[in-house]
Specification:
The protein has 352 residues and is α/β, with parallel strands linked by helices. The chain contains eight helices and 19 strands. It folds into two domains: 2-135, Glucose Oxidase, domain 1 (3-Layer(bba) Sandwich); 152-351, 3-Layer(aba) Sandwich (Rossmann fold).
C-alpha cells in the first residue's frame, strides 16, 4: 500500500492508503452504502456508475469474491471504493479471488484506512459530494468535476436487442442499467424476455408487458426513454418499473423528480405498503425520488420510505401500471417484496 487521500469538493481531505498499482486521480460522486454484506452484487450493479462508494461496514472482503453467477453484471461499475479495512485472506470455500485481486482485475481505485463512519456523517450533513481518490500528489487544491453531469444510462445500457427464453408471455425489458437478477426473476415465469436499449423504440414490437429497469444518474437525462414510455402508457398493457424505472414512469405521466440529499443505499430500508399497511425491509440504491405532489389525479403513492417518508412506489388507479423505488429482486438484500414480479406476470396473463 502507498499513501493516498480522498479530496472532497467541500474542501475536506481524508488520508488513507491505496494499492501500489494505483496511479491516476479518480473522480466520482461520493456516496455511502449501509449494507453489512453483498459487496459483490453492489459493486457490479450498474446503478453505481460514476460513484465512489463508501462502505460503512468496517470490514470488506471477508468472504472473498465468488463465481460470476453472484454478480449483477459482467464487471464492476463503481468509479472507486472507500473502506475502513479490507480482509486479504478470506477462507470461504467458494471464493475465487480476494477482494483486492478483484479490484485490481478491473482497475478499480481503492482507498483504505478511512474512518468511513466519520465520512458518512459528512455526507449526511452536506449531502453527496463530488470527490477524488488521489495518489502520489502533495497538492490538495484539485479541481473536482461534477461526476454525474453525463448521461450514465447511455454508458451502461445494452447496445443491441437480445431475446432470452421461449415462454408464452412476451416481455420487453428496457435496459437502463439493469441488474441481472431482474432478468433471472422474469425468466422464472413462462416468459420470453426481449432486452432493449434504453433509447430503443419498442412500440412496434409484439409484447404482452413492459418492465423498466434500474439505472444510474438523473432520470431527466433519459428524454428518449421517457417519450417512448409516454406513448406506451396510453395503452392498457401492464407496465412495471424498478428504481430508475419508477422515476421514468413518473416523468412520463407529467410528474416531477428531485435529487435526494444523500440518497438511499443499503439493504435495510423500511417501506410501508399504503394499501395493506404491511411493512417490508427493502434493498435500495438511488439518489433521486418522485415528487408526490406532482402526480396526476389518476396516480397515487403506493409505498413510502419509513425513514424519511419519501415516495417508495407509485401506481395508476385504473390501469395496470406500477413501479417501486426499492429493489424487489434484492441481490443483495431481503426478498420480502419479490411478489412484485408475480403481480406483474399475473396482470400480463389477464391481458393475454
Amino acid at each position: 500500500m502507498i499513501p493516498a487521500k480522498l479530496c472532497l469538493a467541500t474542501g475536506e481531505v481524508l488520508y488513507g492508503f491505496s494499492p501500489e498499482w494505483q496511479k491516476d486521480i479518480t473522480f466520482g460522486e461520493v456516496v455511502f452504502n449501509t449494507g453489512m454484506t453483498g459487496y459483490e452484487e453492489t459493486l457490479t450493479d450498474p446503478s453505481y456508475s460514476g460513484q465512489i462508494i463508501n462502505f460503512t461496514y468496517p470490514i470488506i472482503g471477508n468472504y472473498g469474491v465468488h463465481q460470476r453467477s453472484r454478480w449483477e453484471s459482467n464487471q464492476i461499475h463503481v468509479s472507486g471504493v472507500i473502506c475502513q479495512s479490507v480482509y486479504t485472506k478470506p477462507e470461504h470455500y467458494e471464493k475465487q479471488q480476494t477482494f483486492l485481486e478483484w479490484l485490481h482485475t478491473f482497475k478499480i481505485p481503492l482507498i483504505v484506512g478511512i474512518d468511513t463512519r466519520h465520512l458518512t456523517k459528512i455526507l449526511r450533513t452536506a449531502g453527496v459530494i463530488n470527490g477524488a481518490i488521489v495518489c502520489n500528489q502533495t497538492n490538495d487544491d484539485i479541481k473536482i468535476p461534477n461526476a454525474m453531469a453525463q448521461n450514465w444510462v447511455a454508458q451502461v445500457s445494452s447496445k443491441e436487442i437480445v431475446k432470452h427464453g421461449s415462454g408464452k408471455y412476451k416481455i420487453i425489458l428496457v435496459d437502463c442499467g439493469s441488474k441481472e437478477n431482474i432478468l433471472r426473476l422474469l425468466l422464472s415465469f413462462d416468459t420470453e424476455v426481449t432486452v432493449v436499449p434504453y433509447n430503443y423504440d419498442y412500440t412496434n414490437l409484439k409484447y404482452d408487458g413492459v418492465f423498466l429497469s434500474n439505472g444510474p444518474g438523473d432520470p431527466k437525462q433519459c428524454t428518449t426513454t421517457i417519450a417512448i414510455l409516454a406513448q406506451v402508457l396510453k395503452q392498457n398493457k401492464p407496465v412495471y418499473g424498478i428504481c430508475l424505472g419508477a422515476q421514468l414512469m413518473a416523468l412520463a405521466v407529467g410528474a416531477d423528480t428531485y435529487k435526494l440529499k444523500f440518497g438511499h443505499r443499503g439493504q435495510n430500508q423500511p417501506c410501508i405498503d399504503l394499501v395493506t399497511q404491511k411493512c417490508y425491509l427493502t434493498s435500495q440504491n438511488h439518489g433521486y425520488a418522485v415528487d408526490a405532489t406532482t402526480l396526476p389525479d389518476d396516480w397515487c403513492v403506493s409505498f413510502k420510505n419509513l425513514n424519511d417518508n419519501t415516495v417508495a412506489g407509485i401506481k395508476n388507479k385504473y390501469k395496470p401500471f406500477a413501479a417501486v423505488q426499492f429493489h424487489p429482486e434484492s441481490a443483495p438484500g431481503p426478498e420480502d417484496t419479490a411478489y412484485f414480479f408475480a403481480d406483474f406476470i399475473n396482470l400480463v396473463k389477464q391481458g393475454v
